[in-house]
Design goal:
By secondary structure, the protein is an alpha/beta fold. It is built from 21 helices and 16 strands. Strand 7 and strand 8 (286-289) form a beta hairpin. The N and C termini lie far apart (64 Å).
Amino acid sequence: MKEFKPIPIGVEDFKEIIDKGSYYVDKTGMIQELLDNNAKVNLFTRPRRFGKTLNMSMLQRFFEKTDENNAYLFDGLNISQAGEKYMQHQGQYPVISLSLKSMKQGNFSDSFLLFKKIISDEFKNHQKILPFLSEEDRSDYQEIMSRKADDSHYLYAIRTLSDCLYAAYQKKVIILIDEYDVPLESSHFRGFYDKMVDLIRSVFESALKTNPYLEFGVLTGCLRVSKESIFTGLNNLNVYTVINNDFSHCFGFTQQEVEKIADDFGIQAKLPEMKEWYDGYRFGKTEIYNPWSILKYVQSAVSDEECPSQSYWSDTSSNDIIHELVINGNEETHSQIEALMNGESLSKPIYEDITYRNININTDYIWSFLLFTGYLKPIRLFKKNILTYAELVIPNVEVQTVYQTTIMQWFDEKIRTNGTDDLFKAIIDGNAEGFEEEVNNWLDESISYHDNYESFYHGFLAGLLMGRRGYRVESNRENGKGRTDITICEYRKRTFAVVIEVKIAKSFMDLDNACNMAMQQIEDKCYVSNMKQNGYKKVLKYGVAFCSEKVCRVKLEEE
């Protein structure tokens, strides 16, 4: 059996990947693009698990001046082949590298304590410069490093460290801040958003706006959130979102890269499946695959050729926003979710500087949030008045399952909360009008997808009826000359049963005809006669029809 390079699932240290000989998709072209771009501060917004942290580690390993020579890490990679113009920057700068991705505490006090630890740890990483500092700077440095400094000192600690590094190396510093907006998102859902905004703003102003010793800075996150005034006055900020073409190939895997992965691991036959499930993102003009899901799938496919595709990304990203969208969305929002789930597109204005404060579930802002966090993709951009609009769709099957799973979970919760006793009683009592009214009420409350698929409404109705004490409710049960959609049978007495056949009507006007077709199928397939042979004396027959206008019609016959 052919041996393959190990796949570095969850490894976010560039040096570790190279040193261990793990499989690496070359993204070092980002270094060349950064140097050519020559922007003072760069903000990259991409969805979770699209390679932001690994790229930041790559930048640190390339630029950072260390005791060991890290140039070998880039042997054979794109940046090493770009020429001396770029390689002369390797290992030449002091680098401050911070990650805020763990700042998800339940209150501001705990979050600030963690922030102090993050700052303290970075000071420890550079403590070898202490002998080169003045006595006063050395004292301040040690106070911050030991977490004994006043809280106010941590607001400009990155600037303090920049000053100290410049004093030691006589070189301007590179500042890398990964997942800068995680504490903003977390604090939004936990009620201390304004305090966190004040903290992040103070830190960024001193580090990125008024810092004479800054060579350049790179930040990553999901959202830009500039309206929060976090980047107030930062005129040297270049922002690259998913709709910008610059750096579009640097995060996620391109079509060419995925084809090479499939070739390297001998799974070329899996490419169509990989495309259906994990492709579909578009950054600028570049087609992009989800890198996390591709690597997870390749790992499984190499060890098991029959492995099915599945959703990997949903296990790593918070789906709270989808849950909130489903639960708190109004009728218009629900109808728009239905349209997306049924393969349609939505045309919405794009707000690149959306804030967590203005993410209202029932406004156009939510669709921009879903775009930037990876739950939607733009298939077309166009101008309308002064706004940029995007035609949005769900990217792929993997993301579609996130919506479906969330909707099903919400529907199950709703059933448990509201109950369906009235519906079940109407069916047992032979009350067709009551049956019809209850189902229509549930349709008004539901979010449906694949409207024209009989299987959806079949599952929808079966879900409402399951779990009845004293009765056996079965779906797709072998019966007579076929399979009944739904049967309800008494457990012990075998005196009473219900047969339900579901059909889809082409239009509202065709509902009665669809009900009649359902009744005819019950007759032609001998569903009732078979049940009577099994001892059931009374059988109610229901023909149930649905149409795309989310309307149900019910007809009843008794034998």
